[in-house]
Amino acid sequence: ERQDILDLLASSDAFVLPTFREGFSRVLLEAAAMGLPIISTNVTGVREFARHNEEAILIEPKDSEALTQAMITMANNKDLSSRLIENAIKRVELFSLENVSKQYIAIFEIL
After folding, report:
1. What is the pLDDT of residues 38-57, one digit of tens each?
2. Measured on CA atoms in the order 46, 59, 9, 99, is the torsion positive or negative?
3. At what angle do helices 26-33 and 78-94 cross, to 10 degrees?
4. For a FRET experiment, which of 24, 39, 74, 97 has its CA 20 to 30 Å from that of 64?
5. pLDDT tens digits, one per residue of 71-106
6. Residues 87/55, Cβ–Cβ less than 8 Å
7. Comparing C-alpha atoms, which of 73, 70, 53, 48 is closest to residue 61?
């Protein structure tokens, strides 16, 4: 297991996850928490965290042209990048241990 993941994220300009399928993607939360703009594919697990042009740029799977264009857009549009980062950091807070614990407690209280 790599021990330098935080260093790798900290030295990155963006986080790109071109996946074909994904469960809930903790790595997106980690990238967002590190303040990285995100480019990923529009698949179920990713959509649980990110919305297109809100928290990330989402492209369709297997579309290398769209992936290339998204990376160019992200590199050239700092306003978009900053907005995505700001929104993603806010979204990460929804998945904090405190918030998720409260949601579980609420469910157990209903049962």
Report:
1. 999 999 999 999 999 999 99
2. negative
3. 120
4. 24
5. 999 999 999 999 999 999 999 998 888 988 999 999
6. yes
7. 70
